[in-house]
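Key result, reporting period 2: structure in, sequence out.
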């Protein structure tokens, strides 16, 4: 009988982050994932679907799906529209 024991994501990630090359790539995506997470969180707080958000800013649902899926490199102007539609203010700092 083969017993399968699931490995937690956090343990797997912690182990992978010991590899300097992996950590470098992971850290490079931190800003992108933070933006995605914030957009999704705000949209859900507002009880909006991707389609409703898209309609509010004059784009297609697929554009919101690409943004939330990390499959696009959105412009600052696009992020500004999304932020305003979600009742937020886009802030960028260096």
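The corresponding designed sequence is given below.
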């Amino acid at each position: 009988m083969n017993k399968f024991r699931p490995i937690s994501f956090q343990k797997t990630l912690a182990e992978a982050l010991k590899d300097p090359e992996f950590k470098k790539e992971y850290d490079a995506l931190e800003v992108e994932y933070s933006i995605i997470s914030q957009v999704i969180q705000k949209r859900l707080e507002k009880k909006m679907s991707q389609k409703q958000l898209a309609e509010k800013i004059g784009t297609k649902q697929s554009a919101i799906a690409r943004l939330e899926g990390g499959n696009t490199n959105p412009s600052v102007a696009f992020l500004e529209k999304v932020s305003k539609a979600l009742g937020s203010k886009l802030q960028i700092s260096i």
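The chain has a mean pLDDT of 91. The domain at 10-85 is CATH 1.10.260.40 (434 Repressor (Amino-terminal Domain)). This case is discussed further under Risks and Mitigation.
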